[in-house]
Write a structure and sequence with these properties.
There is one protein chain. The chain is mostly beta strands and 183 residues long. The protein has a single domain (21-180), classed as Distorted Sandwich (Glucose Permease (Domain IIA)), CATH 2.70.70.10. It is built from two helices and 14 strands. Strands 11-7-8-9-13-5-2-1-14 form a nine-stranded antiparallel beta sheet. Strands 6-12-10 form a three-stranded antiparallel beta sheet, with no helix packed on it. The radius of gyration is 18 Å and the shape is globular.
């Protein structure tokens, strides 16, 4: 009985303590406090910067946005450095050369020609797949990091047309299959 009381006490105290892996650099530019799960990453995590017009200071003012706001072409999901990244669908790794430095030192560019999209994943720490390699659904191929990210460890997900540039970016939420985690 004493052991049960200690365990309950630890659970209650643990729920009052902030997440041990929270990055002090995280800045959230959304009121959405939901933690989302996805077949693309381990765990449940909050969105830092949503797709579209944003008050985040990293983006130049955009004519699509009011009040001098910038436009974010992807979705940033806050997660601890080292969080595993999985293929949510069968993809081929393609060269990241067309991507600029804003995505970090080693961004991943994935392609699913059959479904007609490329997926840019920025700020990876380590990538285990090579250009030309096909990564099957459910396989781990990278880990989250903070390379090129002034606001801490997270992953940037950006869906584009096959071989498309930034102007072809669309909201990646459906592709990521984000599901709110039950509390």
């Amino acid at each position: 009985m004493r052991l049960l009381s200690v365990l309950i006490g630890l659970v209650l105290v643990g729920s009052l303590v902030p997440a041990a892996h929270a990055d002090p650099r995280w800045e959230f530019y959304t009121s959405d406090r939901t933690r989302y799960e996805s077949p693309w990453f381990a765990g449940a995590h909050r969105i830092m910067i949503p797709f579209g017009c944003t008050a985040a200071p990293y983006y130049s003012p955009d004519s699509r946005c009011r009040g001098g706001r910038g436009f974010h072409h992807g979705l940033d999901v806050a997660m601890p450095c080292g969080t595993p990244l999985y293929a949510g669908r069968k993809v081929r790794v393609v060269s990241n050369r067309p991507l600029g430095p804003a995505y970090g030192e080693n961004p991943v560019l994935l392609r699913n020609r059959r479904l007609g999209w490329d997926l840019v994943i920025g700020h990876t720490r380590r990538v285990y797949a090579e250009v030309g390699q096909v990564v099957r659904r459910g396989r781990m191929f990278a880990r989250a990091g903070d390379s090129g990210a002034p606001d801490g460890c997270h992953l940037h997900f950006e869906r584009r047309a096959v071989r498309g540039g930034l102007s072809t970016a669309v909201h990646p939420r459906r592709l990521l299959a984000l599901t709110p985690r039950d509390r």
